[in-house]
């Protein structure tokens, strides 16, 4: 009996161990697969949530940018003669256009194609503004030729070859427009007349033309003369010592203006003090004054002789 009982316990223990061992062996892979499945589902849900959130965020940003990044203002700094509207038109930028479709690089190129402008930047300013920053070369004088008018700045840069005849601009006669290139500087090779002209123009520009000069005639290199708005002919002789002569001219013309003197001839040759000769009331043919523009034309030295070609500076 005792032995039989022990055999039964042994069989029970063996039979008890065998099912447990079989259960663990058969169900471990199922448990792992179930856990992995749940983990994968959780990861898929997280990924889906992240993707949906990103898509929603992008759509929201795009919607907001479409409404809040449309250009409502274009500002220009640095312009002097040209209006903001003209510069914006030349840049081909437009109001109420999304910044992504404005083409800021193309706008800068469009402005740089005009020799008047040195473009510093064309930038978008959040949220709805474009700012154009540039330096504008202003017209200092107009070279009048037979076939057109060239506008130059105080350094001789040709700003425009087909400029309009502005009554307030200083006009230069006696030089040819042959060889002038828009965007280039006159005076590739040294020419004493061109050098003298640029000195005169630069002086007038830097002093806001206090002399009141309206005509510069360079047709006679041995006797350059100018004409003021009051009709005074200013002779400076040979184009040398320009700075000294222009300073003396300005002082003399200011004194004449204070005395309400018009017409006549002011000779400034650099040696001694300037000499003023009043116009002879009985002689109106001495050419010392510029008559009223309503009855006469500009000086006759407006031809373009071959030997007065204006050279240009090449890049």
Detailed description of the structure:
- It contains five helices and twelve strands.
- It is α/β, with parallel strands linked by helices and 315 residues long.
- The strands form two sheets. A nine-stranded mixed sheet has the order 6-5-4-7-8-9-10-11-12.
- A hairpin with a 7-residue loop joins β11 and β12.
- The longest helix is centred in the first third of the chain and has 67 residues.
- The chain is rod-shaped and about 130 Å long.
Helical segment count: 5
Low-confidence stretches: 284-298, 300-315
State the shape.
rod-shaped
The helical percent reads 25-40%
| Structural class computed from helices and strand pairing | alpha/beta
Describe the secondary structure blueprint for this structure:
Blueprint: H1 2-68, E1 73-77, H2 84-91, H3 104-112, E2 117-125, E3 129-136, E4 141-144, E5 149-152, E6 158-160, E7 171-173, H4 192-206, E8 213-217, E9 224-228, E10 233-237, H5 242-258, E11 265-267, E12 275-277
Parallel strand pairs: 1-3, 4-7, 7-8, 10-11
Antiparallel strand pairs: 2-3, 4-5, 5-6, 8-9, 9-10, 11-12
Write a concise keyword list for the protein shown above.
alpha/beta, 315 residues, 9-stranded mixed beta sheet
Give a quick rundown of the structure.
This protein is an alpha/beta fold. Helix content is 37%, strand content 18%. It has helices spanning 2-68, 84-91, 104-112, 192-206, 242-258, and strands spanning 73-77, 117-125, 129-136, 141-144, 149-152, 158-160, 171-173, 213-217, 224-228, 233-237, 265-267, 275-277.
């Amino acid at each position: 009996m005792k032995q039989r009982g022990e055999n039964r316990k042994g069989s029970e223990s063996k039979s008890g161990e065998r099912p447990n061992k079989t259960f663990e062996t058969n169900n471990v892979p199922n448990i792992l697969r179930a856990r992995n499945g749940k983990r994968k589902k959780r990861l898929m849900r997280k990924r889906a949530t992240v993707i949906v959130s990103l898509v929603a965020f992008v759509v929201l940003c795009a919607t907001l940018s479409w409404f809040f990044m449309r250009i409502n203002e274009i500002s220009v700094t640095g312009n002097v003669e040209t209006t903001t509207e003209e510069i914006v038109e030349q840049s081909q930028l437009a109001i109420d256009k999304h910044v992504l479709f404005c083409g800021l690089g193309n706008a800068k190129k469009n402005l740089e194609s005009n020799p008047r402008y040195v473009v510093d930047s064309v930038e978008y300013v959040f949220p709805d503004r474009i700012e154009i920053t540039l330096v504008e070369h202003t017209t200092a004088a107009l070279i009048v030729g037979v076939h057109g008018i060239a506008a130059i700045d105080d350094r001789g840069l040709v700003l425009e070859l087909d400029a309009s005849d502005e009554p307030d601009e200083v006009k230069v006669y006696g030089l040819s427009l042959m060889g002038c290139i828009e965007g280039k500087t006159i005076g590739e090779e040294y020419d004493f007349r061109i050098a003298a002209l640029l000195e005169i123009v630069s002086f007038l520009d830097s002093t806001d033309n206090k002399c009141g000069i309206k005509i510069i005639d360079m047709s006679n290199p041995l006797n350059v003369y100018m004409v003021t708005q009051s009709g005074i002919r200013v002779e400076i002789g040979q184009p040398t010592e320009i700075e000294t002569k222009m300073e003396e001219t300005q002082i003399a013309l200011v004194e004449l203006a204070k005395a309400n003197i018009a017409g006549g001839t002011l000779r400034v040759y650099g040696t001694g003090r300037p000499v003023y000769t009043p116009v002879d009331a009985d002689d109106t043919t001495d050419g010392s004054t510029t008559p009223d523009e309503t009855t006469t034309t500009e000086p006759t030295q407006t031809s373009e002789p071959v030997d007065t070609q204006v050279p240009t500076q090449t890049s």
